Amino acid sequence: MQGLSLRVLVDNATLVDRYFSGEPALSLYLECGNKRILFDTGYSDLFLVNAGKMGIDLLDLDYIVLSHGHIDHTGGLSSLMRLFLEAAIEERPHRIPMVVAHPHCFYPRPMPRLADVGSPVDEARLARQFPVTTSRTPVWLTGDLVFLGEVERTVDDVVPDRHKKRTIITPDGMEPDRVLDDTALAYRSPAGLVIITGCSHSGICNIIEYAKKVCGEPRVRDVIGGLHLKESDKETLGATRAYLNGVRPGALHPCHCTSLAAKIALAGIAPVGEVGVGLTLGY
């Protein structure tokens, strides 16, 4: 067993007496065994600023993993590319990480009044600087940490965006966007799965079920990340709460796109931990 450590680089919230900055976005830094992983890049270059304050060297990464293509999770890609470009120009030590994402991650996503809420960097441009692996199927990053790929959606009433009219432009043209690229990481700890999410557009219940299937592990030790549960969506919150009551996770660390009402509702099922920029967790 390799052990996993996780630090929050970007979240909507910051911790008390920790002098970092936040934004409505998400970025996490993970170490698992001898692998270093950046999970999402937030909305701006803030993840670089906070990582620098934490003493984390983002020029020393094995993987850049993207949970999905929305700009609050991919917006920092341009800044990351510039960081590596400048390191090469100045001949500073750096390693070239591999980008891992779902094939839909880099497609444009127009919305009413908004030209594109998707990744500001397309796959071709990104691939000129980093090797890119896009996969619908699981990709094992270490012996115990897996990128889940396209999540099977077996519980429709816990998919938060099922009623929204989003669009995505694929090679076949514009079509309804079911956010099929929404995925997560799962880590097999001695006490069960640690599931790390971006926004859970797939539905956190579907993500947990798929992680259990991929990893062959029925126990859930912790879930950290955005759960896409908001006060207005009481139907989804009720269905999710009922599901999690059966799973009985050891802990929950909801953040980013999870409302206070949802956190309070889930606190009756499992201990809910505070999340903010600067938080460190270990498993």
* CATH class type: Alpha Beta
Can you list the strand order of the major beta sheet?
A: 6-5-4-3-2-1-15
State the fourth-level CATH superfamily: Ribonuclease Z/Hydroxyacylglutathione hydrolase-like
Head-to-tail CA distance between termini? 10 Å
Shape category:
globular
CATH architecture: 4-Layer Sandwich
| Number of domain units | 1
How large a portion of the residues is in β-strands, by DSSP E? 15-25%
Q: What is the averaged pLDDT score?
A: 95
Largest sheet: 7 strands, mixed
In N-to-C order, the SSE pattern is EEEHEHHEHEEEEEEEHEHEHE
Low-confidence stretches: none
Assign the structural class, choosing from mainly alpha, mainly beta, alpha/beta, alpha+beta, or little secondary structure.
alpha/beta
Please give the number of β-strands.
15
CATH T-level fold name: Metallo-beta-lactamase, Chain A
Radius of gyration: 18 Å
DSSP helical segment count: 7
Helix fraction by DSSP (H/I, runs of at least 4): 10-25%
Write structural notes for this entry.
There is one protein chain. This protein has 283 residues and is of the alpha/beta class. The chain has one domain: Metallo-beta-lactamase, Chain A (4-Layer Sandwich). It has seven helices and 15 strands. It has helices spanning 46-54, 71-74, 77-89, 123-127, 204-215, 234-247, 260-266, and strands spanning 4-10, 27-32, 35-39, 63-65, 98-101, 132-134, 139-140, 145-147, 167-170, 173-176, 184-189, 192-197, 220-226, 252-255, 280-282. The strands form three sheets. A seven-stranded mixed β-sheet has the order 6-5-4-3-2-1-15. Strands 7-8-11-12-13-14 form a six-stranded mixed β-sheet, with helices on one face. The longest helix has 14 residues, at 234-247. It is globular, with a radius of gyration of 18 Å.
